[in-house]
């Protein structure tokens, strides 16, 4: 991260970057009042400089395995859960830029010739890689059940003897491209295509193509019983390293003068391809919305990776803000409330000037 200009004796980092200098105190008040629950980490930066950081301790899991009480700090790895999906989108974009994976208009089943029997269904045969990247496969998939339920489709995929056949053999319930259906299975397929095209496992290619250029030295990628890393939810990163990814995206794919991801891939990933049932836009494994801030006359667009339990990577390019939120409210229906309040009522509401 680049450093801000030296502060005057009366200035705080937040104030220098355009925020209410009491922003940290407001965050702590929300936590103390019980309005902001189960937070583990809040880390936010503007124009390359951190203006808000908060680390605490709490009960945590590693991909569903209880870890007990964990004291979080800048060196602690944390589950991203489905923020992993958004990182996988970036990895596909890098592989595509290098000519290692097929274009988005390529048919999905053509990448899995071992399942040629499934292509006899006309709609299934029309599904493309682009449909997988926008969760518009048109296939049945149910992740509304708790992740402790073996009937949850992602868990059923992990328990299946062949995860890819399990995904590709789901019943067709909508025309491909016409309906958004949240699907970790679609991202498992993207991870497999990356591995096939690059000749490396997903974690190994991610390390070489994304993490090492960003100076990310430590990560963990949880894998299923078959040894396959979960492209849908398995990545663990420290908060500062996830923030680096966000700042690289704000830099339109450039980090320390080095091109990591093409600007065209980022722009296309952040372009709404379909609407979700919650009224948000969805691009290439990124959620899209808008939110107000006192610094602006009208709401500005944001882009985000969302993960089970309250994990978030929020970006607002017009304000040059990236924010990481880690939390421990796994599998709870209201886990979205606290990270949304931190983003809207703490971070954006205290941005006073552009």
From TrEMBL:
Domain Beta-lactamase-related: 42-327
Top-level lineage group: Bacteria
SUPFAM superfamilies linked: beta-lactamase/transpeptidase-like (SSF56601)
Entry-linked InterPro entries: Beta-lactam-related, Beta-lactam/transpept-like, Diverse_Enzym_Activities
One Pfam family it belongs to: Beta-lactamase
Signal peptide range in chain numbering: none
Membrane-spanning residues: none
Protein's name in the database: Beta-lactamase family protein
Organism the protein comes from: Mesorhizobium caraganae
């Amino acid at each position: 991260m680049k450093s801000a200009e030296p502060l005057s004796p009366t200035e705080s980092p937040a104030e220098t970057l355009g925020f209410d200098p009491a922003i940290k105190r407001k965050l702590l008040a929300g936590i103390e009042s019980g309005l902001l629950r189960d937070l583990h980490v809040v880390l936010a930066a503007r124009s390359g400089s951190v203006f808000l950081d908060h680390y605490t301790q709490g009960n945590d899991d590693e991909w569903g395995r209880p870890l007990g009480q964990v004291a979080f700090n800048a060196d602690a790895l944390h589950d991203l859960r489905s923020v992993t999906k958004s990182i996988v989108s970036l990895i596909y974009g890098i592989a595509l830029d290098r000519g290692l994976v097929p274009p988005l208009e390529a048919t999905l089943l053509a990448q899995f010739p071992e399942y040629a029997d499934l292509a006899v269904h006309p709609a299934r045969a029309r599904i493309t890689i682009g449909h997988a990247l926008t969760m518009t496969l048109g296939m049945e998939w149910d992740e509304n059940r708790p992740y402790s339920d073996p009937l949850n489709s992602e868990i059923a995929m992990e328990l299946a003897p062949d995860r890819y056949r399990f995904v590709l053999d789901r019943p067709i319930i909508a025309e491909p491209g016409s309906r958004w259906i949240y699907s970790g299975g679609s991202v498992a397929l993207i991870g497999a295509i990356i591995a096939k095209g690059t000749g490396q496992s997903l974690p190994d290619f991610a390390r070489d193509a994304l993490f090492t250029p960003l100076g990310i030295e430590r990560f963990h990628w949880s894998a299923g019983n078959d040894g396959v890393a979960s492209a849908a939810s398995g990545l663990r990163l420290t908060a500062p390293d996830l923030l680096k990814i966000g700042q690289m995206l704000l830099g339109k794919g450039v980090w320390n003068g080095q091109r990591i991801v093409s600007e065209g891939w980022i722009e296309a990933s952040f372009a709404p391809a379909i609407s979700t049932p919650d009224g948000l836009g969805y691009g290439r494994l990124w959620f899209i919305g808008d939110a107000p801030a006192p610094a602006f006359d009208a709401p500005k667009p944001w882009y985000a990776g969302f993960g089970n339990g309250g994990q978030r990577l929020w970006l607002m390019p017009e304000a040059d803000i990236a924010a990481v939120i880690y939390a421990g409210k796994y599998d709870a229906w209201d886990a979205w409330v606290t990270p949304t309040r931190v983003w809207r009522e703490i971070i954006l509401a205290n941005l006073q000037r552009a």
